[in-house]
Amino acid sequence: MKASQHLASFLLFVISVSTHGQDTLRIDSSFATKPWEANVGILATATSGNQLPFWMRSNQFGSVPLEGLSTSLIANVQRSYQKYPNKKLVDWGMALDLRLNAGQNFEVIPVEAYVKARLGAFQIKAGRSKDISGLVDSTLSTGSFALSGNALGIPKIELSIPNFLDLPFLKKIIAIKGSFSYGWMGKVPIQYEKFNGSSVPTYFHNASFHVRFGKPAWRLKLYTGINHEVLWGSDKKIFEDQYNLTTAQAFFHVITGKKYVRDGLMRDISKIGNHLGAVDTGLEYATNDLTLLVYRQFFYEKGALGYLANAKDGLTGISLVNKNTSNNKWIWRRFLVEFFYSKNQAGERDSKKTPSGPEYYYNHGVYQEGYSYKGDGLGNPLITSRIYARKNLPNDPINYFVNNRVVAYNVGTEGSILSWGYLVKLTYSQNYGEYRTSDIPYWLTGGRHERNPIYGLFQKVDQFSGIVEINRHLKNNLFLGATLAIDNGKLLYNSVGGSLRLVKKW
Fold this sequence. Notes:
The structure is a single chain. This protein is mainly β. It has helices at residues 3-15, 54-57, 235-239, 247-256; strands spanning 36-47, 69-79, 90-102, 106-119, 122-128, 156-166, 174-189, 199-213, 220-232, 274-286, 290-300, 314-322, 330-341, 372-373, 376-377, 384-385, 401-403, 406-417, 420-431, 442-444, 447-449, 461-473, 478-489, 495-505. The longest helix is centred in the first third of the chain and has 13 residues, at 3-15. The protein is globular and about 65 Å long.
């Protein structure tokens, strides 16, 4: 890499430092009105066919019903930190969230189970939790590229500054937050030489760092940051004589992204583990009545972003939050327009030359199920795994994600009409498969290479997914809700689903 390219990569990294994933506009849920809360609910669900509609299963942190007719019981209890202004310097919290599904099958899902403690602005948390990593409107977005809340949380230990911390020596013009975690994924299947099909202990690393420019009271604030995710572990067993790092050395390579070279030769190992993430940028502007958030995530995986070769790819959103809720008949609280683009991947004919070739978002040559946990993708769910895509679509068997070249448009809103709350998401996507099922020549080691998609050529297919949710607060802290969702297109199987739920809160 030339010196200018090193400098560009470094500046891109520095300019883009941002936060661990809750939406910057959302109310901080870590300080509740009362420390202890509990909910118990019952849900009745019906879906057509053998597949849940996209928005009934996506970004639900693994808490999804069964296909067909089913009943679910949900119970959770949590202790939150003490609410400001009586906030304690030292405090603790916990959450336990269980879901029981009964229908064609029977399953119990531990959606959350964690304890946490804080000292001032710093927090330590251990267990499974509902986390998002990346700057997005986490209520209405299609999902952050790095970690969207699509799968169950990976059990982990995490150190963090969960909320923006103003730096007093800079007169509060700059604030920071971030996280650093170590997670256990259990045994994960691999696909490499004689160990093909074996499952090995695998770990998960997540780190994020975000910066806010602008005092808390300023109308205009700027955000920037980076999210770094790695699946890694058992490399000595997988690569045998190619590998000679100690555990400490391997972990250093994981957290820094440093390339691995043994004896001056690079063979099948380029980095320790599967690295990916997103660089975040954002702008927030507040008036007396509205808050506007504009954000952009740039994706990275194998290194093309350092050359700006896949800079076309990204998640772009415009979110409006209404602070004027005096009208009690109709209130719109939030509105989002979002554009997701992952079609380039440094693999298009007009892409800049890169030594590593296309990015292959979420797929991996060693980890058989790519960037997923217990079968569900950890990142944006618009990138489709073989579990949900139509079986007739072309796919190279090495890929777990059949479709990662996506152009998608998403519109969402939430509010209330006559005491009924509502949420609507409408998503349309154009889907182009992935590069191993394309006929586009790609850059690698300084030249263009022709493709021969022996498993078929993936032709563009369209897909629409939508959901409407309504809910109402009844007497005695009872909440009634209903959901209707639909999928129509050629990527996913057509389906319709709905649910009714009744929840009691204490």
